[in-house]
Amino acid sequence: ILALQVTFILHDRWTYKLHTHGLEALPLWGRYVSFISSNIVGSLITILIFGILYGYVNRLPALLLAAILGLIWNYVVNLYITWRPRKKS
After folding, report:
1. Distance (Å, rounded) from C-alpha 31 to C-alpha 86?
2. Who's near 79: CB < 8 A, 6+ residues apart?
3. pLDDT tens per residue, range 2-42
4. pTM of the entire structure?
5. Rounded to 5 degrees, what are φ and ψ at 87?
6. Sign of torsion, CA 11 12 13 19?
7. Are the beta carbons of 8 and 75 closer than 8 angstroms?
8. Helix count and strand count (H, E) for the chain
9. How far apart are CA 45 and CA 51, in angstroms?
10. Contact, 74 vs 36, CB < 8 A?
């Protein structure tokens, strides 16, 4: 839980701040809820894909593919939903 909080703070203050170029994204509570939700769903996707693939391929390839797909999920959701910049009006 602590690692998730630290990760959110680092993403919010450093990683995606560069993406928004000073534009305001969702409010802080919205970014936090979106970040936590996307990580929960990403973890579930990773577990589900691993469980499905484990019956067909060896453990290591199943784990690698599941982890990569979970990583892609988290990146896309964070980039296009959690820290999407609001358009200037």
Report:
1. 13
2. 16, 19
3. 888 898 888 777 776 655 555 566 777 888 888 888 889 88
4. 0.73
5. -75, 140
6. positive
7. no
8. 4, 0
9. 10
10. no
